[in-house]
Design a protein that fits this description.
- The chain has about 950 residues and is mainly α.
- It has 44 helices and four strands.
- The strands form two sheets. The protein has a two-stranded antiparallel sheet with strand order 1-2. The protein has a two-stranded antiparallel ribbon with strand order 3-4.
């Protein structure tokens, strides 16, 4: 303050650590201008002849410490790092170095100084080595040096404000941030010296291996618990600050080391807390797979188990949060390797806690356990249920589920009204609803794997009762304020209940499905679907999922049992038709209409097709018309399913007449629609055709682009070839077999061009057989094999017959094209005749108009026309006089007579209508 020097504050800068290529000698020469004692001490310590001159070296080190009381220059960091490295080996034999090392470490906690802004990138490599050598001081036997080292590194993080940290850092240190008085610290410094930014120091620490060295030094502090506590705190800060520090710690098996040290004796509980925090940081900022691999050992799981159950019975909120953190780490391990949890007996105890308080267990860990409605206990309950899902894949864990009666506990959670234990309500309404949802999610994963326990607990009855309860609540069909229909709505319960039933029925276990049918699930689900359709005005994603799952349940129940299809009955057919008529307009809406359409088709295929009773009722309700309407507008990905259903329905003799009688609003008929799909399919497959759709290559009339690419490949006998696989990968095979049911003659609505495609469809099977024979011959030639003469002759004959068939079809198509050309010519001639007639009429009208205009404008022409008209009339009169008289012709007409009258009730007039003969033209009147 006396000097009056003012140091300007600068904003912290974060330069890129890209040091300039300066050699070691140049950097030492630049540093010697500021502190020649430092260069001299390095020389003495490195020289074997003078390294043991303890008094001289200590004297120089004291002078260096005295001159650096305000901080270390960046250019001197490399030399101080060498001092750390050399003196760390001398302290064991010469304890006099320890106080001086502590003093140097104390000075190192001050901000480092730079003369130029370029010093930070230029000396970043020296700074990295400085902190790497600083970590070597942890092997010094003097505890004061270790403690000062920990305090020094802590100071780098404690004095950094959150806005000064590197991107992604978030220190949770409880240490009070250090503040520096610039006037006191730098009062005697030159104005050219500026402290480095705190963020720069953190970058140097990250680039060094300080975090790894500190972690490896934990085993040297077994007899120094106080220092170990501070070191764990420092490791927590390092792991929280950056991903690189976490990677360095994991490279030294940090997760395993911390886990094994977490249960050491500590009355304050800070070791366990810091250890769990470090593990959390390693999971969040490091590699989760690496952490899981390091913790996947019996020793680590035993340590976790001991720590978890040590905190389980505590009532302090601090301990409960720590318990939940340990449970999350255990859950991460279970997701990768649950068998170790079973082997370490950790899983058995966790399952006992998961079934509490629904079941009373003799396990000593839960006998004195008391759960309240606190947030921590509720979170633990949910995490334990989630842990059951992760362990369900392990067969040994499922045996524990059976022993601990997990199914009974889960079904108890689902009971209504809210379950009470010992007369006291464990959870509030909202918590109970969340637990019910979590229990259903757990059942969805476990039930298909443990059907015996599922049936023993009568889970079918309970789930169906839950469905009835959900559908009976007004909130099911009222406004839903919850997110995605989760909490606060019976729609969420219904959603997860349907998921459980879907997962159970999908297994196909006869006893389970029969038990559901005996309880009337088919009629119940159909009623729910129709009730939801009537009651819910606005559809959302949750509603779409519920409907889809229910239809999939019905499909699983009725797929292979005709009796269950009869139970599906007329109500089910009407339900399927109702959802079928919705069409595919909203297929890509994103709300689940695509899943609903596919589940409707699956339900139709599994529950209707295959039973004549339901099929006839479906046909009577114009079901084939609805399928063809859907086929007309549906996306390409759905066409195969619709065609497969139509093909199955064609086994019913009444289907063909319905299909042939269908006509779309645009005039499309079923055969024409099928041929249009065939042509679109061949365009997509890249089949070679002429511009009229005729066969271009008679040797390979069905060859696709994909088959061309595999023409040079040879397949073993057990693997289907490309020609065989092609049958199931496109629609041509289904269309062919449908035409086999409809017939190939007298099909309505076909044009001449459609008959060209129909000729190919008619011979599809012959072409396919020939294609497979040709493929076999090519594979034999490719492998250099020659069949015996009779087989070779038969093979050639088959290929020749196929090619001959193709040429016959080509000839037939040519004749059809010739008829098409003749038809086109006739149409052209008719159009030309119409055009000629039109122009002739036009010319006559134009001539008549010109004559009229000329007559009206030329008086002489008008007189001439009048004279011609008079002469013509005279000639006609003379002609009539020369005619022979003919018998008179009498025509009957009507005579209307009107007379006046004075009769009362009249208007004074009387009208009379009578029939009378009239004279014929050119004769006298006949009386």
């Amino acid at each position: 303050m006396d000097s009056g020097i003012v140091i300007k504050k600068r904003k912290p800068q974060f330069p890129l650590l890209n040091p300039a290529p300066l050699d070691k000698t140049q950097r030492l020469q630049e540093g010697s201008s500021k502190n020649p004692d430092l260069i001299k001490l390095i020389s003495l310590l490195e020289d074997p002849l003078t390294t043991n001159l303890k008094e001289r070296n200590i004297f120089l080190l004291k002078r260096i410490v005295k001159t650096c009381q305000h901080g270390i220059l960046l250019k001197e960091m490399a030399n101080f790092g060498k001092i750390f490295f050399i003196c760390s080996d001398k302290v064991a034999d010469h304890p006099e170095y320890a106080p001086l090392l502590c003093e140097v470490l104390r000075i190192s906690s001050l901000p480092f100084l730079k003369e130029k802004s370029s010093d930070e990138p230029n000396y970043s490599r020296d700074g990295t080595q400085f902190f790497s050598h600083m970590g070597c001081l942890m092997k010094v036997p003097d505890p004061n040096v270790k403690q000062q080292l920990v305090d020094t590194v802590k100071s780098y993080y404690s004095c950094v404000a959150p806005k000064q940290l590197l991107p992604g850092t978030d220190l949770r240190s409880k240490t009070k941030p250090r503040t520096f008085n610039s006037c006191n610290c730098f009062s005697r410094l030159s104005l050219s010296l500026v402290p480095t930014s705190p963020g720069y120091i953190l970058q140097l620490i990250e680039r060094s291996d300080l975090a790894k060295t500190l972690l490896l030094s934990l085993h040297t502090l077994d007899n120094e618990p106080s220092i170990k506590m501070h070191l764990l705190h420092l490791l927590d800060m390092l792991s929280l600050s950056s991903d690189r520090n976490c990677a360095l710690m994991l490279s030294a098996h940090g997760a395993e080391t911390i886990c094994l040290y977490m249960n050491e004796r500590d009355p304050t509980g800070q070791i366990l807390f810091r250890s769990s925090e470090i593990l959390w940081n390693l999971v969040e900022k490091g590699s989760k797979d690496e952490v899981t691999a390091q913790l996947s050992s019996i020793e680590c799981l035993t340590s976790l188990k001991e720590a978890f159950f040590h905190q389980l019975l505590s009532s302090r909120q601090y301990d409960l949060r720590l318990r939940n953190d340990l449970l999350v780490i255990t859950t991460i391990i279970a997701g990768k390797n649950s068998s170790l949890l079973v082997e370490s007996m950790f899983a058995k105890h966790l399952i006992a806690v998961a079934t509490f308080p629904e079941l009373r267990s003799q396990n000593p860990f839960v006998q004195n356990l008391t759960l309240t409605g606190s947030k921590e206990d509720f979170s633990m309950k949910k995490m334990l249920l989630n842990l059951l899902v992760l362990m369900s894949d392990d067969s040994a864990a499922r045996k524990l589920f059976k022993e601990e009666q997990v199914f009974q506990a889960l079904l108890t959670v689902l009971s209504h009204p809210i379950a009470q234990v010992d007369g006291l309500r464990q959870w509030n309404q909202k918590q109970q609803e969340e637990l019910q949802l979590q229990a259903l999610v757990t059942l969805e994963s476990i039930a298909p794997l443990m059907l015996d326990d599922y049936m023993a607990c009568q889970a079918n009855s309970r789930l169906l009762a839950l469905l009835d309860w959900c559908i009976g609540q007004d909130s099911m069909f009222g406004p839903d304020d919850s997110v995605n229909g989760e909490i606060g709505s019976t729609k969420a319960l219904m959603r997860h209940c349907a998921r459980v039933l879907r997962s159970v029925t999908a297994v196909g276990e006869t006893s389970v499905n029969q038990d559901l049918c005996d309880q009337g699930i088919i009629s119940q689900l159909i009623g729910i679907l129709m009730q939801m359709e009537v009651s819910i005005e606005e559809e959302d994603a949750v509603t779409m999922e519920i409907k889809s799952d229910i239809q999939l349940i019905l499909s699983s129940l009725c797929e292979v049992d005709v009796h269950k299809k009869e139970l599906f009955g007329s109500e089910g057919v009407l339900m399927a038709i109702h959802y079928l008529t919705k069409g595919s307009d909203k297929f890509y809406s994103g709300l689940g209409h695509n899943k609903l359409l596919l589940s409707t088709l699956d339900c139709l295929w599994s529950c209707v097709v295959g039973c004549y009773t339901t099929e006839d009722y479906f046909l009577a309700k114009d079901g084939v018309f609805h399928l063809l309407n859907l086929l007309m507008t549906c996306p390409k990905c759905v066409r195969g399913i619709v065609l497969a259903i139509l093909l199955e329905l064609c086994d019913n003799p009444n289907t063909v007449s319905h299909a042939l009688n269908w006509t779309h609003d645009s005039g499309e008929t079923a055969p024409r629609l099928l041929l249009q799909l065939w042509m679109e399919e061949e365009v997509g497959l890249g089949v070679s055709r002429t511009r009229h759709g005729a066969i271009k290559n008679p040797k390979k009339p069905l060859l696709t682009e994909h088959q061309k690419g595999e023409s040079n490949l040879s397949f073993p006998a057990s693997v289907p070839s490309a020609a065989v696989l092609e049958i199931s990968e496109n629609l041509r095979c289904k269309i062919y077999f449908i035409f086999c049911k409809l017939g190939f003659e007298d099909l309505p609505g076909l044009s001449t061009k459609d008959h060209i495609t129909l000729a190919i469809v008619k011979r599809y099977l012959d072409f396919k057989v020939g294609e497979i024979w040709n493929e076999m011959r090519e594979e034999l030639n490719m492998e250099g094999m020659r069949p015996i003469s009779p087989d070779e002759e038969a093979l050639d004959n088959m290929c020749f017959i196929s090619e001959g068939t193709a040429r016959k079809v080509i000839a037939e198509q040519r004749s059809i094209l010739q008829l098409l050309d003749e038809e086109d010519i006739r149409e052209e001639e008719l159009i030309c005749q119409e055009i000629k007639t039109y122009w002739m009429q036009y010319e006559l009208m134009a001539e008549s108009w010109d004559h009229y205009v000329a007559k009206a404008s030329n008086y002489e022409l008008l007189k001439e026309l009048q004279a011609q008209r008079e002469s013509t009339r005279t000639a006609i009169d003379h002609k009539h006089d020369d005619l022979v008289p003919r018998p008179p012709k009498h025509f009957m007409g009507q005579l209307l007579t009107v007379e006046r009258t004075d009769a009362p009730g009249t208007s004074g007039l009387r009208v009379t209508l009578s029939r009378a003969p009239i004279k014929a033209a050119g004769h006298e009147e006949v009386v």
